[in-house]
Amino acid sequence: MATYSFVDNQGRRYHVTVPPGQAQPALLSLLHNQLQVGYVELDWGGDGVIENFGILVDQAYRGHEVGTGLLREALALLRDHGVKLVQGYVREGDLTLQPFLLDWYRRHGFAVLPDPRVLVAARLEKRL
Ligand SMILES: CC(C)(COP(=O)(O)OP(=O)(O)OC[C@H]1O[C@@H](n2cnc3c(N)ncnc32)[C@H](O)[C@@H]1OP(=O)(O)O)[C@@H](O)C(=O)NCCC(=O)NCCS
């Protein structure tokens, strides 16, 4: 079975895991020393589409390339599970706290699209 792991800029190793027995999990766990320090949340649509892709790293672990590693490995894992398209949203509140978000997603190959809904700053889309 493939493993999804990476090292941050301080040499700490992380694993991205699918909960046992779940072919289409609602959550991918980010583990460091067997402790969950972040996650990716997702909804499985039909035809290999993921909706509401969301990513979070515990505050204490941010700013050390952990989010970048999690994003990369989660996308690789989803691709290996037959996912063809990932969709998500950036909320206004998240963008206010983290103005780097849209550029970050763009650098990782996401299209950043306008969205008419209140409190939604942008829609995200990436083909795998
Ligand atoms: C978004 C999030 C997952 C990023 O995690 P992270 O571990 O800090 O990410 P990284 O250290 O890999 O940094 C990602 C990029 O953002 C930049 N960045 C991170 N923190 C930053 C800060 N405080 N100021 C400016 N840039 C910052 C990094 O420089 C990096 O840019 P690069 O690709 O040019 O190197 C994390 O901030 C988080 O969990 N936020 C709360 C939940 C959230 O808003 N999720 C997004 C929903 S759309």
Please render the helix and strand layout as text.
Blueprint: E1 5-7, E2 13-17, E3 27-32, E4 35-44, E5 49-57, H1 66-80, E6 85-91, H2 92-97, H3 101-107, E7 111-113, E8 120-127
Parallel strand pairs: 5-6
Antiparallel strand pairs: 1-2, 2-3, 3-4, 4-5, 6-8, 7-8
The structure holds coenzyme A.
The site of coenzyme A has 18 residues, from strand 5, helix 1 and helix 3.
Calculate the mean pLDDT score and round it. 96
**Helicity range:** 10-25%
Would you tell me the structural class of the helices and strands?
A: alpha+beta
Which regions are unreliable across 5 or more consecutive residues at pLDDT < 50? none
H and E order: EEEEEHEHHEE
CATH topology: Aminopeptidase
Query: Which architecture does the CATH hierarchy give at level 2?
Result: 3-Layer(aba) Sandwich
What order do the strands of the largest sheet run in, or round the barrel if closed? Answer: 1-2-3-4-5-6-8-7
**Number of helix segments?**
3
In short:
By secondary structure, this protein is an alpha+beta fold. It is built from 3 helices and 8 strands. 24% of the residues are buried.
Task: Please describe the structure with a list of short key phrases separated by commas or semicolons.
40% strand, single chain, alpha+beta, eight-stranded mixed β-sheet, 22% helix, 128 residues, 3 helices, binds coenzyme A, globular, Aminopeptidase
